[in-house]
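tool_log.txt
---
The assistant was asked to compare two proteins side by side. It first ran the structure predictor on the initial sequence, then on the second. Raw inputs and outputs are pasted verbatim so the downstream comparison step can read them without reformatting.
(1)
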Amino acid sequence: MTGSAYWSSLASSLRPYIPGEQPRERKFIKLNTNENPYPPSPKVIEAINNTATEALRLYPDPSSTALREAVAERWSIKREEVFVGNGSDEILAFAFAAFFETRGNEALLFPNITYSFYPVYAALWNIVFKTPALTADFSINPEDYKQKSGGVIFANPNAPTGRALDRKTLKEIAQAQEKNKKVFIVDEAYIGFSHESGMGSMVPFIKECPNLLVVRTLSKDASLAGLRSGYACGSEELIQGLYRLKDSFNSYPLDRLAQAASIAAVRDSAYYDKINRRVCQTRDRTQEVLISMGFDVIPSQANFIFASPPVSSKSAETGAAWFLEALREKGILIRHFKQPEIKNYLRISVGTDEDMDAFLAACREIIS
């Protein structure tokens, strides 16, 4: 449906985000939505079971106090420097409204190739934005984000490219934007899979950078995409800004089960470090094999791979979309974006070793 006489002008003008396919009709190897291939911590399941009692008739803690305290303990910060919400997407929606001006004179900055929800949120809140281009190798140019602006946001590692900036560079961007009292949001949905020297979360820098907001989700590195939970860390001033939005929209965002499960996940870092190292090992192995098969592979610091298949006569108009369809016929789902700059590339979520072996075997058959 493209429109309705009953819709507001805002609803009519929006171009909503399109999520990855969640099939119901047949069984696929799902490598299209960046879900963790391994189950959540057993402690998470235990926490859910222990919380599924008659107390569900009562409203949850509107401030998610225990969860905020668990996050604060995890990062050695204060509870007042933590905000929680229904996944990072909800937090990002609040952040756009809380920190970036509607119809402002200065444009919000984010890359031309990044998480495709950003332009949706900007349109929803009527925020002017500019999208500096990535470099030829799909890297973010830090200098593009040190200029005067209405604020900055991007994912690190970036999506769908998988490339990441080091913490020193991110701190420099935060400091440059602080001079104009503008907020810098680092979306760390995939940081749990980035292990190179100098990389890592920016949460430890929130005390040095009062304009830095770090947004994280439990969907990816905590295997809880089906639960919907995330958090943000920043100065008390920024967190209070988010709570003003949240308490004007939904005073009970996280239910009792989600709060209990999230606490258990945040506290069981040993389990998640183990499974996420395994994801990274599978990712690196898969990248090497794809390169040997003639794929152009962008080095990834995330739980997905961004790669271009060998050129085919079928690529002329649709880019790599033909390869996506060929894999689908073999029961494997991946993701393709129609954006002209990346139409020749595919995003492949990292599954289990068995999933990736099946994917690589299918790739060999397609290009043979």
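(2)
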Amino acid sequence: MRESFAKGGWDGFRHYVRQADVNPLWAGILDEDEKEKWIARLMKQAESGNFWLFLIKTDPGFDPLRGDPRFQDLVKKFNPPS
């Protein structure tokens, strides 16, 4: 990732992230189609019981998805007890 940014700046970095299909830690650069893809992926992970989904509540990489009601439902589902 670092090399992609060093060689191509933000455009190179965005291209790398899209090609590598990495976790949406950098979801802020995703377009609407990619947001749909990540919502669908997260919903599939929720159906399979992915334990790590509790991280979506606080991981800032998911901020661009927070306005989606489906994402909010996932956050509620994986909200650990207080």
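---
observation on (2): The chain has a mean pLDDT of 79. Helices lie at 2-20, 32-47, 69-77.
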